[in-house]
Design brief:
By secondary structure, the chain is α/β, with parallel strands linked by helices. Helices cover 57% and strands 6% of the residues.
């Protein structure tokens, strides 16, 4: 078959030689643009989004008018939460080709992260008109509608995607996650047939098993549900490059780097951080619910999972990671570096700080939580807690974006990581117990008004009835909790793990987090 003009142009671009740094040693290699981008894609698949974005950006610089590396860079920056860099890459790509579907998809994703859903939907619909057979665009449209709580339109969009490509397994998984019986009998049968293939890629096996597990839950088939959950998690774990030792290493590093006397002195910007509310904890612990409650207050805007503090630390360490940044921070000139971190954080969150208060629900901030009182002494910290077995089972039932929470797909690793998280939070609260408000999910369900009042009081917010009516909040929910948040508070998720007790082994023995114990230890 003769190649199209576009394919020939793509081939010419990919054959161009470029000089890129493809490893951590800084050595520059001469590769074709196509080879360089394959390295970048491989890095992105393992979660090394920053390095992938850097390589893609360098290819784009050396091969002008080549839109693909700009799209790849934009996607990686979006996953990192670096919206400024993502926007720059998208604008450069649009200047080359205003109708490229991947560029338009990235632009819609940027608007989505900025909570500009109307614009995101408009961009995707425009792209669909130009590329009517593209299932990825319909899938993205479905995700936008599901996060807004419009499940009817979300379902129609996913159905349209499956008409374009009946083998789109990720679309099947997303459609299955919609409330009620969202996959029809024909779609479930198709998923089961595909699973019979022995050479099915792990990503497809993962998607199909998560989808079927959800359908089994909807019909009350607990044995079928747990069988497919185990299969889904096993398939996804194979795709991840993750070493459990990094969790224990992080805990040891925290204990050796953050001493109690750090929190006894004052710095010159004691008033900095007023209005910042950091929500931390494990995923599936009720954090999205807390952010929805707080952002229902007229004085509060929401940044979601901004990743801004991590980006600031990466800038300080020149991309060498948060531990290197902390070492350099305390090696000398600490006050100037703390101010630099604060300035960088505020720059990355500027678009979200549209009201007096702003929530940042980057859950992984618990790794470097000790920096927040040093950078922003007036910031408030909310720690969301849930029964550990419910919490871990909630993680095990869902696929997270990118390579985040890589330990969630193996029960042994999940149990170990949860204990490390508990030890980290215990240590932080021994250092600065009065700064952290521990919000228990079960208490919120059983005593909504009292718990909400305590939450608002800790954050320095006046009472507002709209915080009780958080389901009326129209902002998009960009997490796995979109369905639960739209349905309001209920106890359905409490104790759900009990029927799977015989299948959950390592996480059954996890002990609850006891906030009173922390307060008592800190005071002794």
């Amino acid at each position: 078959m003769a190649k199209s003009k576009k394919q020939k142009q793509q081939q010419r671009f990919e054959s161009r030689l470029v000089s890129v740094c493809v490893d951590d040693r800084g050595s520059v290699q001469k590769l074709s643009a196509g080879q360089s981008l394959e390295v970048a894609r491989a890095l992105a698949r393992t979660g090394s989004y920053k390095r992938a974005a850097e390589i893609a950006s360098e290819v784009a610089r050396q091969v002008p008018k080549f839109v693909y590396p700009l799209n790849l860079a934009a996607d990686c920056y979006l996953l990192l939460g670096d919206l400024v860099a993502a926007e720059q890459a998208i604008e450069s790509a649009l200047a080359i080709n205003r109708i490229d579907w991947a560029t338009l998809r990235a632009q819609a994703s940027l608007y989505r992260q900025l909570d500009r859903y109307e614009e995101a939907i408009e961009v995707i619909n425009s792209a669909i008109k130009m590329h009517p057979g593209n299932e990825v665009l319909y899938e993205n449209l479905g995700t936008l509608y599901s996060e807004l709580g419009d499940y009817e339109k979300a379902g129609r969009s996913y159905t349209a995607a499956l008409k374009c490509n009946p083998h789109a397994t990720n679309t099947m998984r997303l459609k299955a996650d919609l409330p009620e019986k969202s996959l029809n009998a024909r779609e479930v049968a198709a998923a089961e047939r595909m699973l019979e293939s022995e050479d099915l890629p792990d990503t497809d096996r993962r998607n199909l098993n998560f989808a079927i597990a959800q359908t089994r839950q909807q019909v009350g088939d607990s044995e079928g549900q747990i069988h497919h959950l185990h299969a889904a998690n096993k398939a996804h774990r194979k795709t991840l490059n993750y070493n459990m030792a990094q969790e224990t290493a992080a805990l040891d590093f925290i204990r050796s780097s953050f001493a109690p006397d750090l929190y006894n002195s004052e710095n010159e910007w004691q008033s900095r951080g007023h209005g910042l509310i950091f929500v931390v904890g494990m995923p599936r612990s009720g954090s999205s619910l807390v952010e929805q409650i707080l952002s229902s207050h007229p004085e509060v805007s929401a940044a979601g999972e901004s990743n801004a503090l991590s980006l600031a630390l990466n800038e300080l360490s020149a991309g060498r990671g948060w531990m290197v940044a902390v070492r350099e921070l305390f090696a000398g000139d600490t006050e100037a570096k703390l101010k630099q971190l604060g300035d960088s954080y505020l720059r990355h969150t500027e678009r979200f700080r549209t009201r007096t208060f702003m929530t940042d629900k980057t859950l992984g901030n618990y790794y470097f939580l000790g920096l927040i009182p040093l950078i922003f002494p007036e910031a408030r910290i909310v720690h969301t807690i849930r029964n550990p077995v419910d919490n871990c089972f909630g993680c095990y039932r869902r696929l997270f974006n990118g390579s985040s929470w890589a330990y969630a797909y193996d029960l042994e690793e999940l149990a170990t990581a949860y204990r490390c998280y508990q030890d980290m939070m215990r240590y932080w609260q021994q250092l600065f117990p009065s700064r952290v408000f521990n919000l228990e999910y079960e208490a919120l369900v059983s005593s909504q008004q009292d718990t909400t009042r305590a939450l608002l009081r800790h954050c320095g917010l006046a009472w507002d009835d709209r915080c009780l009516d958080f389901t009326a909040n129209t902002r998009g929910v960009r997490t796995n909790s979109f369905g639960q948040i739209r349905s309001g508070l209920h106890a359905q998720g409490i104790g759900q793990w009990e029927m799977f007790r015989d299948h959950l082994g390592p996480i059954i023995s996890l002990q609850p987090f006891d906030p009173d114990e922390i307060r008592n230890r800190a005071g002794s």
